Amino acid sequence: VRPKPAMPADKKPAKFGTIRGRVTSGDRGVPRATVGVAKGAGPTKTLERTTKTDSDGKFEMKNLPPGDYPLEAEGTVRNMIRKSEQPKTVTIPSPPEEKPVEVEVPL
Asked: Considering Cα of 8, then 67, then 46, then 35, what sign does the dihedral take?
């Protein structure tokens, strides 16, 4: 029985994944919106691992272990603060894939 050849150093399986997405209102991206992983419910709900969107409403969250991530967003649209109506759950598979998981989070 031959041993399996070692995986090249640059081809090791990923341990962490990336979520890449866009916060939208209608068909437009929402700049400078806050995106985070929702924890808890009701008045005790918080957003963890937050990031801000760029000028096109795009964001990226890196180094996430496999699991489910309920994402929520908050941003200003036409001078009014708007929040996502419900979390958008995204799954990082185990083992994570090399390409990011893509998602759209509407406000």
From this structure: positive
